[in-house]
Design goal:
Subcellular location: Cell membrane
CATH architecture of the largest domain: 3-Layer(aba) Sandwich
Radius of gyration: 40 Å
Helix content: 25-40%
Number of helices: 18
Transmembrane segments: 337-356, 368-386, 398-424
Family: Belongs to the glutamate-gated ion channel (TC 1.A.10.1) family.
GO molecular function: ligand-gated monoatomic ion channel activity
Distance between the termini: 29 Å
GO biological process, one term: detection of stimulus involved in sensory perception
Number of strands: 16
């Protein structure tokens, strides 16, 4: 059994030109449309118990085939609906001649409670103007409020009921009405196929209060308006600018006084942009907010913009004998032995073929390829040097050819390996992960103050990560960088400084720092980031397109 916790008003069905079975059939159709499992009958006047009882019994009989709870609620009880009970109710209101009482109730409900917690179905006479009726009732953008009114008969027997959706984009804008369906006693329901987000996708230029951690971010977003097609104005700037164009709204920016994204304090409160969003001083927090266990219950995250990792970055360590180390690196142990063995073998072959080649015309007086001279000749070929004379015997010439071919092959192999060493440098890092960084102890780690990264290190169940915070972060807590560029420039100004940042933002900030950075892949945190909104924001469903 569903727990009924909402208290509203009741008016008799008989006071309107709607028959009880018509009200029931329309209500059942709306229930099916919105997949609600409970109905609250809201009356605007107290009437006799027998009359109320008969209305409820009739409604229950109509929906008896469905697992639906029907209840009568009075306005003087003011019980709130608990969404966690699993029932998002359809609140059924049947207006009678006492419209003033109903309008007063709706005004109070829209002021005190969140009308979007349930769906609303109001049966209203067709002569009443919707604009006048809801002139003082603030129906928010996220609320699904449907008004049923009798239309002209399609024939002598069939009745037509129009179903109109009403809402305000903003209290300063006029009431919006959309015909979402019709019901006739002969043909049943005909629903509009236009999705919810398309019906409400134009915010008519309203201003949305937006929180940012830095005054530079609004400037970045504004630059997107005048950018050329090939100019990139920042990931967040691009996304927010596109949202403003698609949904037709503007932004008023509020910079957090402490200039941080926000973290939870010891007393349970928040600071930074998180505080602005939770306290509803702003509707949305713009920035790359990391999804954390503490943040998710406090604010609403839009779908992830980026799945990334936060890695430790540092300045590329200096290497002693930098040039010579890269020049000699291709000479591996195997290659050195290959060169040495080739020289010995070719020397022996050249001297031997010369010694036994007199009968082929070699003249000892002109050419003397003793072991010593042969060794010098072969060695010269390995240094790409030529010779004044050439042996006349084909056997000696074959050794010459083999010697030069071997030398050229080794040179090509060395050159290719040398270029690969220059193109792909393998830097010897002082540590490979957080544990190595902690044991090294010579580096200071920078990250944003009051950030998700800091909270993760500070409260991690891993003793190594807590040690990194206590020994490498906490000593410089009062001078931590407040933006990406500041952190990257500190790396360039200090050999023993490292910064925890996403590789994506390192690439995006290229040109703002002037040194070679290297990433420590083993010292990283995997994260998802997105824009945040207040939990009760009326724009949540519109921004997520759900």
């Amino acid at each position: 059994m569903w727990v009924i916790l909402l208290v509203l008003l009741i008016t008799p069905i008989s006071a309107l030109p709607f028959a009880s079975d018509m009200v029931g059939r329309v209500t059942v159709g709306v229930l099916d449309r919105y997949q609600s499992t409970c109905v609250y009958l809201i009356h605007t006047t107290h009437q006799q118990v027998t009359s109320r009882h008969s209305d409820v019994l009739q409604m229950k009989a109509i929906v008896a085939a469905r697992p639906t709870t029907v209840a009568v609620i009075f306005a003087n009880s003011h019980i709130r609906t608990l969404r966690e009970e699993g029932c998002r109710p359809l609140r059924l209101i049947i207006s009678d001649n006492g419209k003033a009482g109903l309008q007063k109730y709706l005004r109070q409900e829209s002021t005190i409670n969140d009308m979007s917690e349930g769906r609303w179905l109001l049966f209203l006479d067709k002569v009443t103007s919707l604009e006048e009726y809801f002139s003082d009732v603030d129906i928010p953008l996220s609320c699904e409020f449907v008004v049923a009114q009798l239309s002209d008969k399609t024939n002598d027997r069939d009745f037509m009921v129009s179903l109109t959706e009403v809402f305000y984009v903003h209290p300063s804008r006029p009431l919006q009405t959309h015909r979402i369906g019709n019901w006739s006693s002969g043909d049943g329901f005909m629903w509009s196929t236009k999705p919810f987000v398309d019906r409400r996708g134009d915010l008519q230029g309203v201003t949305i209060q937006s929180g940012v951690h830095s005054k530079e971010l609004p400037k970045e977003i504004e630059r997107c308006k005048e950018r050329t097609a090939l100019k990139f104005c920042g990931e967040i700037g691009e996304i927010w600018h596109i949202l403003q164009e698609i949904l037709n709204f503007t932004s008023a920016y509020y910079v957090a006084e402490d200039g941080v994204f926000g973290a939870k304090r010891a007393d349970g409160t928040w600071n930074g942009v998180m505080n602005l969003t939770i306290s509803k001083k702003v509707e949305v927090g713009i920035g790359m907010f990391i999804l954390t266990e503490e943040r998710v219950p406090a604010v609403y995250f839009l779908p992830p913009i980026l799945n990334s990792r936060m890695s430790v970055h540092m300045q590329e360590p200096r290497t002693d004998g930098y040039t010579w180390s890269y020049m000699l690196a291709p000479f591996s142990y195997g290659m050195r032995w290959t060169v040495f063995a080739s020289v010995l073998v070719l020397t022996a072959f050249l001297s031997t073929t010369w010694y036994f080649g007199d009968r082929f015309g070699n003249s000892p007086e002109v050419e003397n390829y003793s072991l010593c001279n042969s060794w010098i000749t072969v060695l010269a070929s390995f240094f790409q040097q030529g010779h004044a004379t050439t042996p006349r015997s084909w056997s000696c010439r074959l050794v010459f050819f083999t010697s030069y071919l071997t030398a050229v092959t080794l040179l090509v192999a060395y050159s290719a390996t040398f270029i690969s060493f220059l193109a792909v440098r393998k830097t010897a890092l002082p540590f490979a992960d957080f544990e190595g960084m902690l044991n090294d102890g010579t580096y200071r780690l920078g990250l944003f103050p009051n950030s998700a990264q800091m909270n993760y290190l500070q409260n991690s169940p891993d003793a190594i990560l807590r040690g990194v915070f206590e020994k490498l972060v906490k000593p410089g807590y009062d001078s931590l960088p407040t933006n990406d560029v500041d952190g990257l420039r500190r790396i360039c100004g200090n050999w023993n400084y490292a910064f925890l940042i996403s590789p994506f933002f390192v690439r995006q900030s290229y040109g703002y720092y002037h040194c070679t950075l290297v990433e420590v892949p083993g010292a990283s945190l995997h994260t998802s980031v997105s824009i945040i909104m207040n939990k009760k924001s009326n724009y949540k469903r519109l921004f997520t397109r759900r």
